[in-house]
Amino acid sequence: MFERFTKDAREVVKGAVARAEDERARTVDPGHLLLALLDRERSRGSFVLAALGVTARRDSMTRALAEARRRAGLSQAETEALAGLGIDVARIVSRVEEVHGTGAMSGSPKGKAWWGGGRPSFGRDARTVLEKSLRIALARRDRSIGDQHLLLALTALPGVPAEVLADHGVTYESATRVLDGGLDGGGEAKAG
Question: Which of 158, 187, 185, 146 has its CA nearest to residue 37?
């Protein structure tokens, strides 16, 4: 499947691996793909994000992803559902971090020996994003998989990246509208 990726999409995948390595994570997850996508410039995916005003809120998105990682990857919706059952995730995270250090639930062994050699593997959820991007490209009748398809896949699949993107105004529908020419660079609907 990787041979069907455009240069920009390949760079996002490589960037996600680099992000995971920097965090000393064992696996690449969808959050790493989103962070790598946010790093891109002059690509179709970055155009969509800029058109939807995300470029100015990039730091906010990065913080939201880091906070979710501290919660062991739980989305805000999952955290709220657990709260409805009487489980205080913030309190649990605080207690775990008291004993094991900040970020202990993130899955990244800060300050510990590297987990082994080689590159992090792609986790199940990250592979699902890559597969979904292929399905989206095929449905849109595109010949190759671009970083815009990765963005659409991240918005279409449930989880932290979709939640963070939606909180910042990026949904599957809004991204599709930009790709199909329904919004200009200022985020305004084009007059028909």
Answer: 146
